[in-house]
Amino acid sequence: MNDTKDKPKAVNKNNPKTKSKPLTNKDLERFVSEQVISKLGGKPPSFHSIRSKNVFNDKWRVDVFCYVETATENAIYLDKRINYSFFVKADGSGKILNSDPNISIENKV
């Protein structure tokens, strides 16, 4: 059984019949981010962006940014802030093994 959520794919675009090239850090960042969004049940309300960084030894800091309304004396404007932040442990292929705090929509910063 081939489950595409289990591993990110890195395909050599020049010749797809050759061996896959090694996963880049960008591939792993994208894969970790996709898993976090999936575990949150999709993009949260007012979603802006997500940032995943391998801090050390496959331990990742993942921040989810959302828009918030900020009011001043003269105007109301949209700003962004971190609404969710997780420190996750992943295996060498980027699959999330555990997280602190648990990845959940209820664990808002």
Task: Report on this structure.
It is elongated, with a radius of gyration of 17 Å. Strands 1-2-3-4 form a four-stranded antiparallel beta sheet. It has one helix at 25-39, and strands at residues 47-56, 59-71, 76-90, 96-100. The protein has 109 residues and is mainly beta. The protein starts with 24 loop residues before the first helix and ends in a 9-residue tail after the last strand. The mean pLDDT is 87.
SSE layout and pairing:
Layout: H1 25-39, E1 47-56, E2 59-71, E3 76-90, E4 96-100
Antiparallel strand pairs: 1-2, 2-3, 3-4
Low-confidence stretches: none
Give the mean pLDDT. Answer: 87
Cα distance, first to last residue?
A: 38 Å
Portion in strands: 35-45%
Shape descriptor: elongated
- The arrangement of helices and strands along the chain is HEEEE
Structural class: mainly beta
Helicity level, as a percent range? 10-25%
Number of H- or I-type helical stretches: 1
Largest β-sheet summary? 4 strands, antiparallel
Strands, total number: 4
What would you report as the Rg, rounded to the nearest angstrom?
17 Å
Biggest sheet strand order reads 1-2-3-4
